[in-house]
Design a protein that fits this description.
Number of helices: 2
Oligomer: single chain
Structural class: mainly beta
CATH topology: Lipocalin
Number of strands: 11
Number of domains: 1
Strand content: over 45%
Helix content: 10-25%
CATH architecture: Beta Barrel
Radius of gyration: 27 Å
CATH superfamily: Lipid/polyisoprenoid-binding, YceI-like
Largest sheet: 8 strands, antiparallel, barrel
Shape: extended
């Protein structure tokens, strides 16, 4: 008589083969103290730099097949700073980012192309000031490392965009036909991230012992 509890060998092999596939994608969460978002734009005859202080990023990495990885980040536009209070206030106004109406800048990758030597082209949906465009970042992967109990990875992203594509049009004419600001903006993002740890399963609480029955009046 056949043993009904015997598991077919083919099923066991199928489960064993699929297990590595399920484990390929690793989630990494941004380590904020070691990450930054900066930008550069021409001001008359030199470059001015600024940064965003409030942002977050999440990465889903497939080490065996990097093209199946994914990255998302969100920048709080109101956190912009150029170390000049009046200028920063102007940048938050409707002349530039209009942060009350459009509080976030987002990017969601849709395609990752390995280019060799730990570099990639990462294409995705970039949304700023309510306008969504398909843009491409040039990305360099810094590798993986173990620091203490944390598994880390890091990326440097670079891109140039035209601010007028996102309806950031403000400018002012100055002498000799020049303009105060350039149109091209260089964006530089450095992300260090820690591997997400699996949620801890709460320990089972011991079952409560039933209360002893109350003694009868005659006992």
């Amino acid at each position: 008589m056949r043993n009904p509890r015997r598991i077919p060998l083919a099923l066991v092999l199928c489960v064993m083969a699929s297990a590595p596939l399920l484990a390929q994608v690793e989630t990494f969460l941004m380590d904020k103290p070691h990450s930054q978002v900066t930008f550069r734009i021409r001001h008359v005859v030199s470059m001015v730099e600024g940064r965003f202080n409030d942002f977050d990023a999440k990465l889903w990495l497939d080490r065996a097949n990097p093209s199946k990885s994914k990255v998302e980040f969100t920048i709080q536009a109101g956190s912009i700073t150029t170390n000049h209070e009046n200028r920063d206030k102007h940048l938050r106004s409707a002349d530039f980012f209009d942060t009350e109406k459009y509080p976030t800048i987002t990017f969601v990758s849709t395609k990752i192309e390995p280019k060799g030597n730990d570099t990639y082209d990462v294409t995705g949906d970039f949304t700023m000031r309510g306008v969504k465009k398909i843009l491409k970042f040039a990305v360099r992967h810094g590798g993986f490392a173990r620091v203490g109990k944390s598994d880390k990875t890091g990326f440097d992203l670079a891109m140039r965009l035209n601010r007028k594509d996102f309806n950031i049009n403000w400018n002012r004419a100055i002498d000799q036909g020049r303009w105060l600001l350039g149109d091209d903006v260089d964006i530089l993002i450095g992300i260090e991230a820690n591997k997400e740890k699996p949620a801890e399963t709460p320990a089972e609480q011991p079952a409560e012992r039933p209360a002893a029955p109350a003694p009868s009046p005659g006992s």
